[in-house]
Amino acid sequence: MNDAGAVNERRTVNDRLAQARAWLRQDPDAETRDELAGIITRAAAGDAAAAADLDDRFGARLAFGTAGLRGALGPGSNRMNRVLVAQAAAGFAAYLRQRTAGAPTVVIGYDGRRNSRRFAQDSAELFAGAGLRAILLPRLLPTPVLAFAVRHLGADAGVMVTASHNPPDDNGYKVYLGGADGGSQIVAPADAEIAAHIARVAEQGDVGLLPRSEAYETAGEEVVEAYIAATAGLAPAPFGVQEMRWVYTAMHGVGWQTFSRVLKAAGYPAPRVVDEQSDPDPSFRTVSFPNPEEPGAMDLAFARARTADAEFVLANDPDADRLAVAIPDAGADGGWRRLTGNEVGLLLGWRAARTAAEAGDASTASLACSLVSSPGLGAIAERYGLAFHETLTGFKWISRAPDMVFGFEEALGYLVNPGTVRDKDGISAAMAMLSLAAEARVRGATIADLLDELGAEIGHFASGQVSIRVDDLSVISGTMASLRAQHPTAFGARAVASAEDLAVPADDAVPTGDVLRYRLADGSRVIVRPSGTEPKLKVYIDARADSADEASAAVTELEAAARELLAERR
User: Fold this and answer.
1) Are residues 408 and 477 in the same domain?
2) Residue 460, phi then psi, degrees to nearest 5
3) End of a domain among 36, 59, 82?
4) Which end of the chain is more exposed for a tag (fewer CB within 10 A), N or C?
5) What are 423-440's pLDDT values in tens digits?
6) Domain total in the chain
């Protein structure tokens, strides 16, 4: 390194040391203060690894977007901690005061992750200190209860402290808006406006000078009881299902205590619970990654199901906003197969469409899903006379679909009760799935039989996904640019009939985003887009055929062709 480079490097280290020392002075958390003090000492003594660590922690800050905040716990502006949460709460309070006449009401919930309760209490004190009416939920609860509470209490906003199914050392800050937004997650331009308020708070300095108050309210159990009643009312147990054998896991999260009460209220038989995973545990000690989609995450549930000779398995993720379903399958390893999010979404959409049609409401109702989810939902809507909407990914968009009675995305998210919860809800989705399984059982059928019956009615749909993880994000942008410059004419032996670049606005019916969609001559569909949360390029594949085997075979072929194409374009 030349002299100029060494001077610049030292200047960067000194800048980071100054930032870190200023952060240390305002940090109210003894644990993160001690951690940061050690890094500062080592970096000041010339430790290159410590200096790089400081640069990672203070060279950027966690961006506040439509998903709020989410990141690893630890000191620094690029981590989740009490300083960052205080800045976020004060900035959000300023945004709410600006947009709301009178004193805004905000309700705060939290799950069982590390620091969730502390972040929620800090937020409640800061909201109250800023002159808002702050209502803290009574204990750790599922994310859907918070989403419900925003509407139930007529609040102007809601905050849920959770990182959902992220790794154990993460936490997050998820924001909802009431009023005209109906209790949905925020969308643009609200995210940028809130971020600007947060930036102003951060520029003002010490969060210890922000006004706090303990004059916040703690909600009573009646809020939880109202959610339980509304959710149980979705799908009361039919007669004759008391012998139904099934397994449930909360994946070390907060779902079981609430879900068990919903089950009892609706009259369903209690499941065989995976005891090792039934109580909240921020270390998620029995899984390497607390996400039902991850390999191995449901192994304990499958073992319990084999012992109990269960008919099916239901699993929530740690904050219970997602649902996974598994069924016996002699051809699968261990004899059990987790259904894809698309399979579950189509079954629940079928249930919603039939319910609307039977009630005479089909002409004024709609189904909705993200544009990367199965087009089978559109076929269901057409079959039963409902409208159909495709949206960008995320329930912040799905929840806003007009006249929606059901919405889903392939990543195990389902919105089955839009009148009370305008977000994905793994507990109400579990109730809807129990209703389907129970009704089938009464006539001697299974969930696998339901999939066959749906396929016979609308055609057999299968889906697959290819994910390419990269170390250099420029690989993703370069690949997308290559595909835009020269659209593929085929995926393997299957010709491309049309190519759509959703970054180019077409009409109001087509969402815009960094997405390429290819419709193939045989009716299959291939979608390519960058992941919104990980350094991945993702390909979503959907096929429709006269049989399930033919559809699955088409997906397998297209997955191989997509991998080959992306390898050529990287």
Assistant:
1) no
2) -95, 120
3) 59
4) N
5) 999 999 999 999 999 999
6) 4
